[in-house]
Specification:
The structure is a single chain. The chain is an alpha/beta fold and 409 residues long. It folds into two domains: 148 residues, Alpha-Beta Complex (Aspartate Aminotransferase, domain 1), CATH 3.90.1150; 224 residues, Type I PLP-dependent aspartate aminotransferase-like (Major domain) (Aspartate Aminotransferase, domain 2). Strands 2-8-7-6-5-3-4 form a seven-stranded mixed beta sheet, sandwiched between helices. A four-stranded antiparallel beta sheet has the order 9-10-13-12. Strands 1-11 form a two-stranded parallel ribbon. α8 links the parallel β5 and β6. The longest helix is centred in the C-terminal third of the chain and has 22 residues. The structure holds pyridoxal-5'-phosphate.
Length: 409
């Protein structure tokens, strides 16, 4: 475990060159979410409960719309304006208004980004100086840590409540210092599947306003809540606007992970600065991907319901399977997103050892909980984005492996 709470993967014993490499890049790492499949590819024959790529193809009407644009518009290969195509920003603004009552100005308050990831990174680089602190309720999405480190900020991990993975607002309050610049909140939550309680999020908003710190709201899974429930989006709260940077994604909602389209919403005064980072690193999001995003917003929305209902049934499947292994795992049932943190009952075994052995001996990819900050130790993250058959096969293998008593009695 390093000083930032990460358990860096040994990357097969590779040592990295440090000479000539900046301090800021030397101290970051490729997240274990991406490293585990890489290691697995060298082993061969693994099934994955690892990376968060859902099994669904991009809906046909989106792919068709892009083919049409490429065929008919000779200029579709050119850069768009930096903040993105005006018609796409208008469509996003209309969507945000209908969905959440957010009155975002498409010309001044929205920027289309290269996935949510670029938006999040630009947001952090915009508000964090060297030595500034950023609060990450932990366990947390691994890349949030690296983005803070890239800005030479200090991630401050505040544990989520273990019993339900809820936000501990009192603990967050205590963690705030004069150097605190932002709190990163992802709801519904990766890696735990939590859907944070509205009262906790409202308390957090009051806290952010009282202490004048930013909330960077990662809304990648805002559409994905189960059991007929919804989630409370902090971006809907008008009073927070000057202290909010909200980041949306097309990746999971429209099965568009590879298109790399996302969007940042912030007040004009803040977005003006985010745009400078966006210009320096991306110029503009890919034009074809912006057309895909536009087709997604303009097209039928039943594809979103289909994704949600398939993932809800996969959530149920994975929970049933884990219940059969309850001598070995416990977990909090996910209310949203498509991940859960399974706590393994193997005293003295850390999550990296557990996940590597599971991969080498049972040929199942999971992500060691330590990759998600200190709150993730003693867990593995299981993604149920894969097809039912994949989930069943992976659980069969885990069951068989456990029956060999891999950690002794
Ligand atoms: C919490 C979270 N934020 C951001 C991202 C990145 O999203 P995008 O593909 O839009 O860059 C992911 C992807 O898995 C995620 O889980």
């Amino acid at each position: 475990m390093d000083s930032h709470g990460r358990s860096a993967l040994a990357a097969d014993g590779k040592t990295f060159r440090t000479r000539g490499i900046s301090r800021r890049v030397n101290q970051i790492t490729i997240s274990a979410i991406k490293e585990m499949p890489l290691l697995a590819s060298r082993i061969g024959g693994c099934v994955s409960l690892g990376q968060g790529i859902p099994s669904f193809p991009t809906p046909e009407h989106i792919r068709e719309a892009v083919c049409r644009v490429i065929r008919e518009d000779a200029h579709s290969g050119k850069y768009t304006l930096g903040p993105g195509m005006p018609e796409l920003r208008q469509a996003v603004a209309a969507h945000l208004f209908e969905d959440r009552g957010i009155a975002a100005d498409p010309d001044r308050e929205l920027c289309i980004t290269v996935g949510a990831m670029e938006g999040l990174c630009a947001a952090v680089l915009t508000v964090v100086d060297r030595g500034d602190e950023v609060i990450l309720p932990s366990p947390n999405y691994a890349s949030h840590i690296e983005q803070v480190l890239l800005a030479e900020g200090i991630p401050v991990f505040v544990p989520l409540r273990k019993a339900d993975w809820g936000l501990d607002v009192d603990a967050i309050r205590e963690a705030i210092t004069p150097r605190t610049r932002a709190i990163v909140i992802c709801n519904p939550h990766n890696p735990t599947g939590a859907n944070f309680a509205r009262k906790d999020l409202e308390a957090l908003i009051s806290l952010a306003l009282e202490r004048d710190i930013f909330i960077i709201s990662d809304e990648t899974y805002d559409f994905l809540v189960y059991d007929g429930k919804t989630c409370f989006n902090m971006s809907s709260v008008a009073e927070l606007k000057e202290n909010l940077i909200a980041v949306f994604s097309f990746s999971k909602k429209y099965a568009m992970t590879g298109w790399r389209a996302g969007c940042v919403y912030a007040s004009e005064g803040v977005l003006d600065h985010i745009m400078k980072v966006h210009d320096a690193v991306a110029i503009a999001a890919p034009t074809v991907s912006q057309h895909a995003a536009l087709a997604a917003l303009r097209g039928p929305q039943n594809c979103v319901d289909e994704v949600r209902s398939a993932l809800e049934s996969r959530r149920n499947l994975v929970c049933e399977r884990l219940d059969r292994m309850k001598d070995f795992f416990d977990y909090v049932k996910p209310a949203g997103a498509y991940y859960l943190m399974a706590r393994f009952k193997a005293p003295g075994v850390d999550s990296m050892t557990f996940a590597l052995r599971l991969m080498k001996e049972a040929r199942v990819i999971t992500i060691p909980g330590a990759a998600f900050g200190p709150g993730g130790e003693q867990h593995i993250r299981i993604s149920f984005g894969g097809a039912d058959s994949e989930i069943s096969e992976a659980c069969d293998r885990i069951e068989r492996w456990l029956s060999t008593n891999p950690f002794g009695s």
